[in-house]
Fold this sequence. Notes:
Blueprint: H1 2-18, H2 32-47, E1 50-60, E2 68-72, E3 78-83, E4 90-96, E5 102-109, E6 117-122, E7 128-137, E8 145-154
Antiparallel strand pairs: 1-8, 2-7, 3-6, 3-8, 4-5, 4-7
Amino acid sequence: MKKPHLLLTALTFFSLTAFSQDVIRLQSCTNNSISKQVDSLKNLYGNDGYVLLKEASITMESEFEMPVIIPLTQGAWYQFVFIGDYSSRLYEVRMYDWDERQVIFRQKKWGDVDGNVIVYSYVPQVSQFHMMKPVQVNKQIKKNLCGYVMLFKRTGAATGSVSPAPATTLDAQPAH
């Protein structure tokens, strides 16, 4: 009597695993033009008093968001950078707070000046995790697009007399 239940349980388990969705895994990539832009931006922000906290090259698929979760500290001034593959036609970044409210939306197109680079500042009102979701659209290359994300934090000594605006007014746009 126990063996039919065991067999049924095993079959159910194998059928569920066979039809389960693939997990999105973060994979690195290499792109020489993006590497040059990364080096330039690291030097630029380093000279302006920013410290690089996190960076990653990511393999992306056209029209699919790649979620990046980051812990942010209340009142700190952050600079976010996303660099997409130069051959893509559209680049977007959305950022959400812990309550899943969209706090940032940026979009660039291929013809824009620095079209494949999206940069924005953000000062969180509370310390919590945020999710950055970059996406790029490419008509020729559907898979294995290279992207790069960086998170900089402004150091206390470098802020000088400039004080950041609250997150509700600094680059924030309401969700649609």
